[in-house]
Structure formats: structure tokens, C-alpha cells
């Protein structure tokens, strides 16, 4: 044993804000980022070494436990990834435990080794071939398995199909009739790196100058934005870029928003390139993840397509990082560590000294602001999409003037009937339509209240307490059920079941298909003369054909919401849906929008001027009122299991923040009116919005809060979460 003893700070794979000290008494020095086994609460558990120092016997130390054993002789993360993790913990004012807990797969948390598990196959022995099989007739399962083994070897997949247990094979092994045969894992890809040159851009193309500029900055940090593109034009640009990067034996990390896009891009790359391609996501098994981590450490050129889980995966010879659809809200991760994936990727690429490509046809206003400041280089692949937007027919229906049968106006019903007669399909987008109006049900029999004159569904005005018919404009002040004559009622917002009933009443013999996460392309048959109902997040999964009418039922919710970012989100949703339809069909179709905001300036510019002009107008408005990205907003979230503890903490923190706001004129804060309850996780939380001109000034304020209230928070078990890149819609009212 070595004379020098170390005190090691160990982090457990539990989402808690604590590290534990242990004595390290081994021949080798402790490795930061290496895993060890320790005794924690009478159980052996796996942890990671965060730091170490030499043990001083003269100092009065608390009696510490010893580290039980070492798992790894190397750090799990490389130098660049470890630096990004440390920087993230400082930037987000978050414990390193939560960051590592998010970025590490399950096999590392369990303490499994990085060695690839060898695949095995059950095969028959010589004795098994020579023996008379009729001897095993008393044990029919053994008889059946041996007869299968005489035909072919059996692997794990075939075992599940035949419903044969491992116990039967163990019994046959004891009789020396079969045995395990191990095989090494081999990745199946073509060794000859052939490329389909017909798919790529020509050397004389205009976009080659952008590719050459990116390639010249391969060893330096630089950010690029690709906008105004269709899917296949975007792929052509990527493949031309990949062709040059992979020649230098570098790896490419391609991050996508969902598994559907991952598989779609992977299949397109496989068709045109024969370099090794790896997909990494949360649904992979532990054995496959181990194989991926080992393959990423090799020097050969490869393409890695991953979801947000692959941000902290260590990759050797990483050449470039690509973030697809950078405006997607799924990159926003909420929890004990709230962060935006884009900012983490930029941090990693800064330490790795490699370029980053952000792709979006509808980029965030913060990225467009950085483009104006020349911090991000902009690449426009094609202008075809702008011409498509201009040529589309748009019909706006004013809700104030029109008559309605339930959710549908009479002019909209005419358009739907016309398209159904011509055997066309129709798509209804129902994002935000639940806020259209309130309808009333009977308390006992669930009868929907209708007008006495025209027998159409009535709208309930909550503030006035009146029932208004949206067809004949008749006003009723009293409610009485026709069937059970009950006077009690319940009001609720529009939902999908209400919408489907309404469609069946108006349009007879039409096929209604509701698209959600449970359905797949294989299970759905697409007919002519059918109505598809979907939200934006499920629409990309399906290939819809022969659609000539796209309907937005109600969009006022996004413009009337108290958060100023909601208009930006709707503009991204609106143009991404249109782009998705243009990529699928390349044909003209009508767009109908039901709204009260026909004469609104913002709404007009969004619909008619295109996303680029609309985003420029929004930036001007935000500059006028000093809103992000011209100022910085951060959310300070207080969490606790008990409500009175938050109230007690607010008595001290509010006057403390008022003193800071008097000293610093550019700083202001806004508190929410209520303490909110998280129903599923069963804890209370309270939001405070901070605003300042610089991030440095906001960080100073956060540090002051942690200094003054650290002991108070730990004693009362109150958790603080600093959301610095706040882009989500939060509730203050």
C-alpha cells in the first residue's frame, strides 16, 4: 500500500445537492471522473470522484469511511466534456450532481464495465447429434428444443419467439447435449467508403463557398445558421459538407429533436453514404449504449445521430456539431437543472474548438439578433420556400361577424363540403382551439345545452352568466335540461370528443381520423374524402396525401396570452406546418384561419409578409420596450414540500431584492401572485422574474442570494432553481 492517503469527494448517482467525503487508500492516485464503489447507508453504491486532496492526520477530521473498490482506471468523460459540465454548474448555479445524473446512461449508474458483452448462441454438441432423441420423450420441452438445435443454432431473439426458458438449456448442458458459443460484436457497414455523387451539390454551386468557409474554420469555434430551406435541399448541403469532413477522419455529431427525425435522417444518409452511422438515444438498451461509447472512442470517421441525451457523450476526434430545428421547444429541459440545449452545445463546441451549425427555417429571435450583430454566420440555401408562401391562398374568417354551428362557421362549412365533394382530404389543426368558447353540460345526464329556437350549441359567457346561441344570436338566461329537467350545470372548454361529435353532426358519411402519439403509419389507412384532426407535435409522424385544405380552428389564444413570447411561438408553429405540407406534396392548397384578430397589425404581418419580415418587426417592438434579446430575463424558482416555508422565506427575500433594485437602476423583478402546487410530484413552487441588461450582473445577484440565505435554505429544505435561459411559458397569475 502507498504511504500517501487521500480524501476524495464522491458524487452518488442520485439527484441530490450533496457530495460525500471518503478515504482513498490504494496504490494508484485517484482519477477525477472515475467510478468507485462506496458504502452508503449500509449498502454498496456507485459514485464518481469529483476532486481529491492529501489526507492530513494532524487536522481534526470526522471519522470517514474508506472507498471499497475502484471500477475505472480512467475518467468517464474526456477533458472537453468535463470542462463543459463544470462550466454548466457555474453558469446555471446548479449542483454538478444533477448535470451528471442527466448526461450519464443507466449502465454507468449501475456500475457496469465498458467492455462489450459478447453475444452467445446455443449450439448442439456431438453427443447431442449422436444420441437417440426418443430418450427425451418424458420431458417434452427438452425433446422439442433438441430437435430445433439439430436444425440450427438458437439465439436470444429466436428464444423469445419460441417461448423457451434458459432453464431447459441449462438442463441440456448438464447432460452435455448443448453448449454456449460466444461471438464478438461486429458493426455492419461497408468498408469501402463509396459516396453517391449524383445526390451532392456540384462544385460550381454557390453553396460551395459556404462549405469552404466552414472547412477553413474546422479547428476554431464558429457558429453558422442555415435558414429558408426545404428538407432535401438541406440534406444535399449536409452531405457535401460531410464528404469533406469525413475525409479527415473526423466524427460528426448530429442532434435531432425526436426519434422520428433521427430514423428519417439516418435512412437518407445510409442511401447515399456508406460511412459507419450510429444512433444514440434513451430507448437503446444498456449493451447497445456500451458498444456506442466504445465505438465513439475510436479514431475512425463516423456519423453520430443523437437526441438531446447525447450532449455529454465523450467523442474522440469530433469535427463538427449540428443542431437540427434549433427553435424546437423539446430542447428545453425542465427539472432541478433547467437549461436550453442550444447553449450547452455552444459551450461544448467552444471548449472543443469546433464549428457549430444551427438549422431552422423559423429561427429564434435571439439567434436572429446574433446574426444582425455578426456573431453568427447566416447561410440561405434556397429562396423557393419564400415563393411558395406568397402563392398560397389564405382565407380569414371573422368570428365576430360569422354564424356558427358549434366550432365551425357557415363559410368554413361551405369550403369543407366543396373539398369533400371533389374527393380531397382536409386537415384540422387544433392547437389552442380549446380556448374558443365554453359549452354547458347537464350535471346529471351530460346533456349539452342547445338553443330553443334553432337547436344549435350555445356558448356560455362566464362573466355575464348568459347562454348565447352562435347561430341565431338568441340569448337565454336560465338553464333547464330537456331530458332530466335538472337546473344544475357544468361548463367546460372545447375538447376533441366535442369536436368529433360536432363534425359527425354537420358532415355525414365522412371518415374522421384523429392523429396522436398512439397511432402509427402502418395502422392508419388514408382514404379520400376524410378529415384529419391533429396537433402540430404529432403531424410530422404521418405521411398525408391529397390534402387541399388546411384549417386553423382558433389561434387568438397565442396573441392574448400574457407571455410576450407566445406570438413568436405561434409564428414558428404556423410556418413549420406549412413547410411540412409543402415538403410532402409540392402542390397548392388553401389555408383557412378562424380569428377575431383580422385587423390586428401583428397578425396581418405574420400571415402575409412571411416569417423573416415578421421576425424583424418583432425585434423592433422588443427593442422599443427593452425585452429579450435586448435585455435578459431569468426565472428564480422557489420549491418546497410545505407552503408555509415558502411564505416565511418570501418575507425576507422580497425586501432584500428591493434594496438591490434601488441600488441598480437597470435591475427589476416581478413576483407571481400565487404559490402554485405541482399535483403529480406533490410540492409547492413560486416564481420570481428577474431582468437586467447583462448576464454578469444577474449572476452577481444570484451569488448574493446564495451567500445570505444558504444556511436558511438548507435548514428549511427549500430548493432554489435558477432558470437563466428562460424561454418557456410560465404562470404568474
The overall pLDDT, averaged over residues, is 85
The largest β sheet comes out as: 7 strands, parallel
Strand content: 15-25%
**The CATH top-level class label of the largest domain:** Alpha Beta
- Indicate the low-confidence ranges by residue numbers: 185-193, 729-733
Total DSSP helices: 23
Please identify the oligomeric state. single chain
> What is Rg?
31 Å
Domain count: 5
Describe the protein in words.
With 733 residues, this protein is α/β, with parallel strands linked by helices. The chain contains 23 helices and 34 strands.
SSE layout and pairing:
Blueprint: E1 6-12, E2 20-24, E3 35-40, E4 43-54, E5 69-70, H1 79-91, H2 96-103, H3 106-110, E6 119-124, H4 126-130, H5 140-151, H6 156-162, H7 166-174, E7 178-183, H8 208-216, E8 222-227, H9 231-247, E9 251-255, H10 259-272, E10 277-280, H11 286-296, E11 302-306, E12 318-324, E13 332-333, E14 339-340, H12 341-352, E15 355-359, H13 365-372, E16 377-380, H14 384-391, E17 393-398, E18 404-405, E19 408-409, H15 410-421, E20 425-429, E21 438-442, E22 458-461, E23 466-469, E24 475-476, E25 489-493, H16 496-506, E26 511-514, E27 530-534, H17 536-539, E28 547-552, H18 556-560, H19 566-585, E29 590-595, H20 601-609, H21 611-625, E30 632-640, H22 643-663, E31 668-671, E32 676-678, E33 683-692, H23 695-716, E34 719-723
Parallel strand pairs: 8-15, 8-16, 9-11, 9-12, 10-11, 12-15, 17-29, 20-27, 20-28, 26-27, 28-29
Antiparallel strand pairs: 1-2, 1-4, 3-4, 3-5, 6-7, 13-14, 18-19, 21-25, 22-23, 23-24, 30-33, 30-34, 31-33, 32-33
Helix pairs in contact: 1-12, 5-7, 19-21, 20-21, 22-23
